[in-house]
Structure formats: C-alpha cells, structure tokens
Design brief:
Length: 427
C-alpha cells in the first residue's frame, strides 16, 4: 500500500517539477486592426509574476499592445468582452514597444484577483504576432503553477484518489476474506466498489486535466467534461444503491416491487441526464472569459435541485414503508432503518447544500469549494455505508446467502426398484 502511495506521489511531483509556469502561447494573423482576448489568470493574495515575450513583426512593432485588466475594474468581464478599437477601456497595465521585455514583472494584490489579457492593434495592418506569456503565482510546488481559483484542488484530488484506493482495497478484502468465505451477502459492498471505482476514474481524469492545463495542451477541457460526466454517473448510482439498501434489497424478502424498480430507475436516469446536460452547458461550453459557475447554481439547475429534493422525499417514503412492514419483534432492524434514513437523507440533499454555498462565495472560491465539498461528502458517506454493512459478527444487515424460496433439492435413488416407485406414486 505504501509503495502505491509513494509511486503516485513521485509521478505527480515529477510531472509538476518540470513545469515553470502557466503559459499563454499563440499566434495572431490579422489583415485588419483587431482586439483579441487571449486568456485570464487569477493571482492569489500574495501576488506572483509575469514574463512577457512578444515577437512583433516589422509591420506592427510600434503599434501592437498587450493590455492587462484586473477585476478592480467594475464589470470587467463585460467590458473586456465588448472591447474593440472603437470601444476602449482604460487597462490596468500595458505592455508596448517601450516596455522592457527582458525582465520578470511582479504582480501584487491584497486579495485573490483575476487578470484578463488582451492583445490589440488598432493602427496598422496586416499583423503577424507571436506571443509567449508566462504567469505564475506565489505558492508551494503545486500551487505556484496554477491560477488561484484552482489552487488546492489538485492536492484534494490526489488525496481522495489515494484514500479511495485504500478503501476499495479494504472492501475487496472484505468480499474475499469474509463475505464469500462465510457465505454472506456482500452485494451492497460489491456495488459500492463499482461506485468508488467510477469516482476514482473521474478523479484520475480531473488530474489529467491539471496536467494538460500546466503543459498548455488544448484538449484538456475534454478530460474535465468527461470527468464531470463520470462523476455525475457515480453519484447517482450511489443514490440508487442507497435507495435499494433502504428498501431492503439484501435484508428483506418484500423489497422486490416492479413499480418501485421502475420509479427508482426513472428518477436516477432523469437525474443523470439532467446533470450531464447542465454540466455540458455550464462547464464545457462556457467561454473561458466567464468566471466559474457551479452547474447546479443556475436557473436550469434549480430543476435539478427539485429533482434531488424529490429523490430524497422518495427515499424517505420508501424507507417509511419498509419500516412499517417490519414487525415489533425486529426492533434492531427498525432502529437501523431510522438511523440509515436520517444519515443518508443528509447525503442525498448534499448537492443542494453545495450549490447554495457555492452561490454565496466569491468567484475565485467557487470551484475550490464545490470540488472539495463534493468529494468530502462522497467519501464520508462511502465509509458510512461500509460501517453499516461491515462483515462483523452480530451485524443483522449482513445475511446468509440462501435460496429465497426455501426449496431443498435432493437426489432420488431408484436402486432399480421401479415397481415400488410406481406403487408409491399411485398411492
């Protein structure tokens, strides 16, 4: 186990250590005067540095400018979006032919602050521009290479990936050494392993996204969106597992209702489809200049809030029905169902809670808050379900694998005496 941790840490550290900064690299070829937004970066409250390398050709060396706009400017995003040669905004800083491009410039601030970068040439054409701009924050060996709105998230992903590997291995040991060896029903833990594997797949893709961001490789955003989709799938499959567990999937012979199964699947499929659609619209399709906005914290996202609320109410109602089906001779099972319903109702409402908190935090904290809170909620409740269905002596939730119809099959031995057999049948 320790070797796996060390290996992953070394690999991630090696990837990071070979990078000096976030870089905005590109070329602009324009036949007319132009204004082009090229990227944004969030410096933390300790500031950071910027190194600018602008290779202008002989046509526009005197007229092209790199404009920097900080979010101290009111409505800066809208102003940068509408910026043109005819619609000008006073920038926070300007790089032009008089700037000393051989030195590194220091950026200071009293809080985390977005800076928006625009290249503009309004006087001469054609333009053939090559730019290479390095931006880096104050911070440790992870955070200095990232925009401040993303800082701490890679470490969070790495931590939960390693933690997830540990609890998956523990669950596999439980299945092999306890459940199957003692002929116990471990279906809940087996399904939980599938959910956790999907969750780790999404975290792995998020980590790839950070590598792509650091190395300035364009397709990284696709990894982020695929990671979002896998995460939404894992979360809703965990909801489905909780619903079935509450309905007595492995503990009651009364759980198997066709109507309930159809409702269960419909609600989960609806939630997954809605989540994928919102994620695509508000994460993948969102222009880079726009600040991060949690996909549930949007007008269409309120329908998702309603869906999660409905799912929670449905979960509670089904558990109440299961509770009433138990007789008074099963007080331990009744107590379990009360605690189980209370604990996991909180988890089923967690997407709404995360969305509400995200709504009230500042833009540069939104992604960090939602990512850390979502993963923290997930793994806390993964562990809670493992505690409920742990393979220990006396745990009433872990039942023996038996024939559900209580039918015993025995081999009939004829011994060649067909006459007696025929006689018994006729009698």
């Amino acid at each position: 186990m320790n070797r796996i941790k060390i290996f992953l840490l070394v690999c991630f550290t090696v990837l990071i250590s070979k990078v000096s900064s976030i870089r905005l690299i590109g070329e602009i070829h324009a036949s007319q005067p132009f204004t082009q937004y090229i990227g944004k970066f969030c410096y933390n409250d300790n500031g950071g540095n910027i190194f600018v390398n602008l290779n202008w050709d002989h046509y526009n060396i005197d007229t092209a400018r790199l404009l920097l706009f900080s979010d101290t400017i009111e409505n800066v995003v809208e102003k940068v979006e509408s910026l043109s040669c005819n619609n000008t905004v006073t920038p926070s800083y300007v790089f032009n032919r008089f700037s000393n491009l051989s030195k590194i410039y220091e950026v200071k601030g009293q809080r985390d602050r977005y800076w928006y970068l625009v290249i503009q040439n309004c006087e001469k054409s054609p333009s053939n521009l090559i730019y290479d701009i390095s931006l880096y924050n104050d911070g440790d060996s992870f955070d200095k290479y990232l925009s401040a709105d993303n800082q701490s998230v890679p470490q969070t992903h790495l931590f939960f990936f390693l933690f997830g590997v540990v609890i998956i291995l523990v669950s596999i040991v439980w299945i092999g050494q306890y459940f199957r060896k003692n002929n116990l029903n471990g279906w809940v833990i087996e399904c939980l392993i599938i959910v956790m594997v999907l969750s780790l797949m999404s975290i792995f893709l998020y980590s790839l996204y950070w590598v792509y961001i650091i190395y300035n490789i364009p397709p990284g955003k696709k990894y982020f969106e695929v990671a979002n989709w896998i995460y939404i799938l894992a979360k809703n499959l965990f909801f489905l597992l909780l619903i079935y567990a509450g309905q007595g999937w492995t503990t009651s012979i009364y759980y198997n209702s066709i109507i309930r199964n159809c409702i269960n699947l419909f609600l989960i499929v609806f939630n997954i489809t809605l989540g994928w659609s919102l994620s695509f619209i508000y994460d993948y399709s969102k222009p880079d200049i726009k600040p991060y906005n949690y996909y549930l914290d949007s007008l269409p996202g309120y329908f998702s809030y309603a869906a999660y609320g409905l799912l929670t109410v449905y979960f509670i109602i089904c558990n109440v029905i299961s509770y009433r089906s138990l007789n008074d001779a099963e007080p331990i099972r009744k107590t379990f169902l009360k605690i189980f319903t209370l604990v996991f109702s909180i988890y089923m409402l967690s997407p709404i809670l995360v969305g509400i908190i995200s709504h009230f935090v500042v833009d540069y904290m939104k992604y960090k808050v939602t990512a850390i809170m979502n993963h923290t909620f997930d793994f806390i409740f993964y562990l809670a379900l493992m505690v409920f269905f742990r393979p220990t002596a006396g745990n009433i939730l872990v039942t023996k694998l038996v024939n559900p119809y209580n039918i015993e099959l025995r081999e009939f031995k004829n011994n060649g005496n067909n006459n007696n057999y025929d006689q018994e049948i006729s009698n």
